[in-house]
């Protein structure tokens, strides 16, 4: 059982179990400044333009930031306050939710939370089933006292943001059914939230908060406490290397903004029109970072395939059809590695 990082200790050095092999460490050079993560105004008066911006950001990064999204400031503040308070609880109260079973909800763990990890990542995480409320409400942690009320209000609000984004994405892709991504089995799975906490790290060059990966679901909505740490990888153009604009870009949202990224399923159902946003978390020596990632996902039995109208006549299908349950099994075994995961689902003719 791994001792949580949020145990009250002040770390003077990075414990050996968290030191990554040199080739996996974050580079000391600054992230690519050739591009910035787009900011999309969901309150604008030109929905067609907003839809175009979402699709353009989806093609380049799989990431964008949204403002005027309709989630009340007090709802966001209450959720962040409750999340940060959870990690200040005594260690034994947090560890009451500890498990290495990735299917258990709620579940508290350090790093990825697998048995016998060779190298640990600099993260504590509380994973919570959120929606449907009647399915999960009775399982939410009782401490801190305000967590349940904050979680319900915040989840309802960000789920609405996610569905709105998916409707705009369908419009931006020119689909006749603008509700294709928003409704039905594609978004009928539960909303699950990772409440991540990265304590201040004495040497951010030696470790990562989380390894590079894409999310397995359809779309993710994220809020953080304003401490920088999330980085997204820009899609490389032909002939570009990582140092030529294809590297990591800081995601540094404006105050009050939410970060949205597409997951693997959005890349599959659009036949690669938009990409799953590859990202990682770096650590900070200055302050602890807390982030809340809400995942909107398909029902487990949903058969994932390109949306009607997204594939042009004669165009190759990039991915074979599969159930979301099959995808999750492969994703978990591969620990989210983008190339390893996609290799199992690419169409040989694609």
Secondary structure layout plus pairing:
Layout: E1 39-41, H1 47-60, E2 63-67, H2 73-87, H3 91-95, E3 107-110, E4 124-131, H4 133-136, H5 147-172, E5 191-198, E6 210-213, E7 219-224, E8 230-233, E9 248-250, E10 258-262, H6 264-269, E11 279-281, E12 289-296, E13 303-304, E14 322-323, H7 324-333, H8 338-343
Parallel strand pairs: 1-2
Antiparallel strand pairs: 2-10, 3-4, 4-5, 5-12, 6-11, 7-10, 7-12, 8-9, 8-11, 13-14
Helix pairs in contact: 1-5, 2-5
GO biological process, one term: flavonoid biosynthetic process
GO molecular function: flavanone 3-dioxygenase activity; L-ascorbic acid binding; metal ion binding
EC number: 1.14.11.9
Provide a descriptive summary of the structure in words.
Mean pLDDT is 91; it is low at 237-246. This protein has helices spanning 47-60, 73-87, 91-95, 133-136, 147-172, 264-269, 324-333, 338-343; strands at 39-41, 63-67, 107-110, 124-131, 191-198, 210-213, 219-224, 230-233, 248-250, 258-262, 279-281, 289-296, 303-304, 322-323. The chain has an 8-stranded mixed sheet. A 4-stranded antiparallel sheet has the order 6-11-8-9, with no helix packed on it. It has a two-stranded antiparallel sheet with strand order 13-14. It contains 8 helices and 14 strands. It has one domain: B-lactam Antibiotic, Isopenicillin N Synthase, Chain (Jelly Rolls, Sandwich). It is an alpha+beta fold and 350 residues long. The chain is 25% helix and 19% strand. It comes from Zea mays (Maize). Its cofactor is L-ascorbate. This is flavanone 3-dioxygenase. Belongs to the iron/ascorbate-dependent oxidoreductase family. Residues 1-34 are annotated as: Disordered.
